[in-house]
């Protein structure tokens, strides 16, 4: 169960309105790596969890914080829009290019649809999607997904920080940046702990019987491009991070197989085939005629 | 530039048709973590790369291999569908529940739209989307995204391995599992190398002036749920992975702020407001009347 | 069957071009509550209707009018774009910020894709989707959906009215506003008539045997937030609109249940589990080995 | 801020596994009218609210309860999947049509992607979308949207009730049905209270100066289909629900306007035009040539 | 304006219910090449048309017929679902694999969401999208799009014909097949007429000054794959269909250019760069510090 | 298999940065008819091909070239963004409307998400989708789809040509225009060759037994609109392109059928029905009660 308190975790009030920035902030509210994503991602990971205790408790604990971040951003966006020019005729004096420029850069649905309110969309107005979430049940994979989400999210917030001079907005962003720092650290610590405890290991999933994979190519770097310096990295020679092999480097594939012949499905799918098959088709349609009529 | 060779990297021919499995395989072809995703993700990361040399060369080298994996899966799917019952009346004898069951589990668009062919969709028939891709320009974030993609992908292939007994299919999957093992190792090695070289560091992005974030909350685990064991992990006490702090544990938030008052945008957005504002609205519409008529 | 007449229901010609406004108008053409939505929503409700006569006749009668509204808006948009600067180099003199501002605010696909034409998208360029439609077969639910659609639509048209001074556009909007007034009234009248005739009732669906619902919580307002004034409304005490109960107010839930233990699906899904299950996994993979090899 | 408690509002445990039903339940978790929709819809309405006090307090109070409903359904789905056949080879004995039938009816991503877990999608596997939400800032419109959402939702839960015999599932549904009953009543009561207080009125938005709409057609039922009984309803004669007019009935439109002539945008959009314009095109390209070369 | 008549163009009643087939038929109702697509595609082409007269009249004339085809299919689907097993418990006797198989193959939203009704989705339950439409304003391109739509559509209907034995369904399909035959012929005739009249020509758009394209590669077949027989077609030698050149065949590209160096955007985007740039970054952040603090 | 070479097919470097144009170019990279579409469309057609030899070889040969075009556009876009104002505070001096106008017209996700990089989206920021692809297995239909794709694509590139004065950009476009000219010619030549060889014919699919379609309406132009000049085209009289009939012209339909009566699905779907059925419902629920309790 979730309980709501009409307080914010941190002050979320801008110094002044800024409708273009209100659109930009939508990215970290409703974008691929926005707060709706992490709130629901951690929650679904917890709901689908197969192990009670500390890992699930942490998922619940952080996921619920993120719902509050959604709220801080929605509140901030509504305030950024409050007194901003949003296309209502009198402000949109068409002879004033400064105002026209502002309006051109806004999310017009924030005005027309939400009446100067926040929406569950990204900075291009694409609705948030359930497919932004990752929750596989394998915690080493999922904690890596979470670390990535917090990294991408912090990169975006850092960029947004430089796109405004508003102290109120920057204060909120400085708070979110700090929480992203924390959460990056937490997911990385948790991924490490999973491995130290032996609960999971590399390669993920570690319980899959590794001899069932085609081990001859498990540590070969096959370079399908012509950039020679690709061989210079620690991913092309030396021991592998999973501790089970040695990297080797190869220009191009080490295996190959002939392309299988084209398929010939039932003639009644009306795919184009070579001549002999056309005969089959006629035969087929004759059979069909006999059968059906 | 890309050049195509009419050979496959590995044998991709099933022992027998299996239309339901053909649908399942779509997940690792056109799903969130399928081969189209990784092929285009690594390619966009290379095209957007800000640094020449080994990292970009590796991105190109692996990305181009993945396009070939798309091809192997598409070829396999077409063959799995070739002689399978796909709803053409004669096979779909309605009194035979075994065939009806098979047809019920197929992707009907593989039959109706593609004529027994592969499609750029996932196992539920959702079209692949450009939003599956991550390419931020920050390589530590992006290599973490790539490690995650290879982990999620290998988990899915491992599950699919147990959903068939077909030796031809399993052979292909054993090859893909091995390549996922390789690529997991490569991205993790590359992420480590970025940090050892000092090119990037934690927290991502490491170049953002860290004193601009609200450092007081950068290492606090704020548990917004009531699971007490969340404090037992290495994410709740001890040094942080970024080497810059110590974790501390707190039940709930350590900061709070009052909810800002509701916004009052221009009355001509026709949002519902409290009484005094209604008066403003009337005044507004009077002004509007005077102005416009 | 539908028959088309090359006339419009109302004059739809702007006084002057306005490409930014052409983008805004897309909202009520191809947005969530635009004319494509209501045209197809009422039509699908009619096609799926289970009752002949006045209700279905009304659905067909209004739905068909709405297709004509799609046409009026598409025609208007094409004219708003006709002589407008759309980025063709000569108008887009980059040193003129006024023109640059206009172009920045346009839907670029109206220019690049449609060649200065209307599109089946909303004001942010999101394609219209079949999921905008509601048609459940239950007419009380669906007429409520229709009333909502006409309300949201009229709110949007009212906002758009204030975003232009063009008399031609405003004339069309004044017509659409009037039709939305009519249709709001019609759906509300129809919803009332359904109840007066006893065809449907509250709660929807009224035919579901009400004793099968957990009646103890059917009229309890459980406040999961801490806003105390929530108790002050007619939704927290007094008789309920369905005439079958009395509202009561409660801070938080009146029931609770322990969280069920985490699930343990087949080990071959490779989810992360606690230690004992790891043993099971090993056992499982041994069994698997024996069985498969 | 949101706080989480590791308890459920109601017991959510099935008697037995049922993977097909787990897919069906996704509809009321992640569908157009599922619990994610109402949780976020009411929350966004609260965050965008322009009026403090009882209405906003109610929005927060109900919205937060709905997040807990998301949790109950996710938990239930994971349990329904726990021991169910999900395509792992040994259960999917292909000679057993009963098991094949079950697998055919499952959401394959619940198995392949989520490892027997719940997902943020509907019963056809379409990801939940931010565009499912309605939050316009006009509370009469939005409360009508909410009443509709609870009606559609309860209709779906009622249908799902008849699609299972599992007592554990039915118990949860009986609880959700009761809460939907409550929330239908609440939104209708709130919509009525808004009007009684004079905060909002019909037609929505009531503050728009009504004389600016084309009043001659505000109460005309224009029947664009040929179903004569459409005139028999209370929507075709008598006083209108907004109390401001009288319905009248008309076969077809009462107004018309000629179709405006086709548009002729800049020739460099390469649209097809009639002959004279072709000449203009040539001229245009000559000018263009002179200008550019 | 559109006027509706409560008649169908052709009898649309099945002999017996078939819920699985009802799902399949959704493809030609709400799929990429279904009737909603062609109805709206031809209508938008007409609304955006730049030329009055026969071409636009034809677009309107066919587009309006297609709306009636949407209606026939929706009506047919509702009837196919009418008495079909749709998961209501009593029919879904779980011990009967035949019924379970049927239910597994149905569109569950037709039951749960639409109450045994048609929906604006394809056979995999993906909602129809405005992006299915093509309307560029160039009639030669658009008529080619239309010919393609009718070809893809007829292929799908032909496949569906073989997926049922129901005479009522087959009768409707035989009618739709004939209309698709007609419309294929019409769009091809119209495309030819455009060229004979000189209104449009190859290559499309023909008015673009052809000397502005890089003519040296305008008729070279550059084979980027290794299939040698690609040179055997009429697309590799001989005169070109546009009458302006001769095809020539080349193994691979005839031109090339070095890959441009990686980009170095503003350091405050926090992209990863090589070492020298890291120095710039530090400098940048120092400047930034001086400027902002 | 695909092999990558770190060279471009043609020089792809702009003279100067232009962030607004970078957004526009996304259309031909990631739009409905952009390069990702044709690259994957031709590849899927090849993978699903049922005929070896020249047609499949051509599909592979052109498809692989198109992947290189994706690369040229991505590279160009990254360079257009490199030094452009993208909202970083110092350039976005708010008092300068010229810069504000530029920023307003950019794709904000290119800045916030990709850090000044290209993305797999169109010019409105909609992600590319797998549903942009057409691959039916019938080559006459598919080559017509390909001709259309190259026509729409060339129209868009031609429009984009006039939206910039940048010589570097125009050079790349002149190259793409020439390749589109080539590919239009190739697909049209291939479609003609298919027919000359007798592999396919009109109407598509030509193997469907034509007497099974309702031949009485196969060549009737039924004008459902009132534009009389529709009869003046070669699509309304004279021989049909398929060589099998004569066009005839008719005002409106030549056939009709009564609308079937409304459906009455199981009462437990809770659809609204007329009175007699209400009685059935009660009976049904009584039965249900008896059965279940």
TrEMBL record, chains A, B, C, D, E, F:
Q: Which Pfam families match?
A: Mn_catalase
State the organism named in the record.
Arthrobacter gallicola
Task: Show the segment(s) annotated as Disordered.
Answer: 230-276
- Protein name, please? Manganese catalase family protein
Q: Enumerate the SUPFAM superfamilies for this protein.
A: Ferritin-like
Question: Which InterPro entries does the UniProt entry name for this protein?
Answer: Ferritin-like, Ferritin-like_SF, Mn_catalase, Mn_catalase_dom
Q: Which family does it belong to?
A: Belongs to the manganese catalase family.
